[in-house]
Design brief:
This protein has 303 residues and is an alpha/beta fold. The chain folds into two domains: 86 residues, Arc Repressor Mutant, subunit A; 209 residues, D-Maltodextrin-Binding Protein, domain 2 (3-Layer(aba) Sandwich), CATH 3.40.190.290. 40% of the residues lie in helices and 23% in strands. Strands 3, 4, 5, 6, 7, 8, 9, 10 and 11 form a nine-stranded mixed beta sheet that branches. α1 packs across α3 and α1 packs across α4. The protein is flat. The two termini are 49 Å apart.
């Protein structure tokens, strides 16, 4: 009987089966929640161990070699048998839990959505039902189960737990302040419209202006429906926005938005993103979401 030690590593076989089935290293990486380079490494290791090329690498695609196709047919069939056997013996699936989450549309699209596959992988039994709105969903009254809110954490009738603080600075399109138009002092910013989003209790421009000694009494303010529109207006050169660094990190990194006063950054431990829930103990699903959000926020701080 042949020893099982002669078999390639299971992780390499999984990488090969997914890449061969999708004919894409990147799609295989997404499916297995690893990097594309990890898929490439496992397949190179497998090819070296077997002594044959399994893929033809092309400019923007991959294709199976004849040996790769033959091996895939066998490996795929083996994985299908494993899946069928596992499904047959697995205990009945528990009822899925739906968690209604109130949040700002800007937070949903610019921070949360790209990270949601990680939550689904970690908690496959919990379905998140996102309810984006510019208003405050009624957590205490049961309109939503929990909420993610932006502010200072002071809302009546609920419990608020800080997920992550926010960094604030005035940002704009580079052309708006190019050359001699570059502001030198906070009051120089008043030459341009100040873009702000609808909020029941607006505070960030006031907080920044108070910290840096800018008189908002002479400001031309443009009020827009939500922060997504504020960002788009700033990108189009229509004025200055208060940049929430958590939400505009990609625009800052690309240079599409730049700080109007690079050294004038407001960091206040009370201003940030909060997990809001009814008073009392969190449900297991709500606690799972809260813990995952805090872990994911902490991880994003290290990158």
């Amino acid at each position: 009987m042949r020893s099982t030690r002669s078999l390639p590593a299971l992780v390499s076989l999984r990488a090969f089966e997914a890449a061969a089935r999708r004919l894409s290293f990147s799609l295989a990486a997404q499916e297995l929640f690893v990097t594309q380079s990890a898929i490439s490494h496992h397949i190179q290791r497998l090819e070296s161990e077997l002594g044959v090329a399994l893929f033809e690498r092309r400019t923007r695609a991959v294709a199976l070699t004849p040996a790769g196709q033959t091996y895939f047919d066998q490996v795929h069939a083996a994985f299908e048998l494993l899946r069928q056997g596992t499904d047959a013996i697995r205990a009945p699936t528990e009822a899925r839990i739906t968690l209604k989450v109130g949040l700002l549309a800007s937070f949903a699209t610019r921070w949360l959505a790209p990270r949601l596959p990680g939550f689904a992988a970690a908690h496959p039994g919990i379905d998140l039902q996102l309810q984006p709105d510019t208003g405050l969903a009624d957590v205490a009254g049961g309109e939503v189960d929990v909420a993610i809110r932006y502010g200072r954490g002071v809302w009546p009738g609920v419990t608020s737990r800080l997920l992550m603080t926010e960094r604030l600075s005035v940002v704009c399109a580079p052309a708006l302040i190019a050359g001699r138009k570059r502001p030198r002092t906070p009051d120089d910013l008043l030459r341009h419209p100040l873009l702000t989003s609808h909020a029941k209790q607006p505070f960030e421009w006031d907080a920044w202006a108070r910290h840096y000694g800018m008189d908002l009494g002479r400001a031309q303010t443009v009020r827009l429906h939500d922060y997504n529109i504020v960002v788009e207006a700033a990108l189009a050169g229509q004025g200055l926005a208060m940049g929430r660094h958590r939400l505009i990190a990609s625009h800052l990194a690309s240079g599409a938005l730049v700080p109007a006063l690079p050294d004038a950054v407001l960091e206040d431990s009370r201003i940030g993103w909060w997990f809001v829930a009814p008073r009392g103990a969190l449900s297991p699903a709500a606690k799972a979401l809260q813990d995952w959000l805090r872990e994911t926020a902490a991880l994003s701080d290290t990158h």
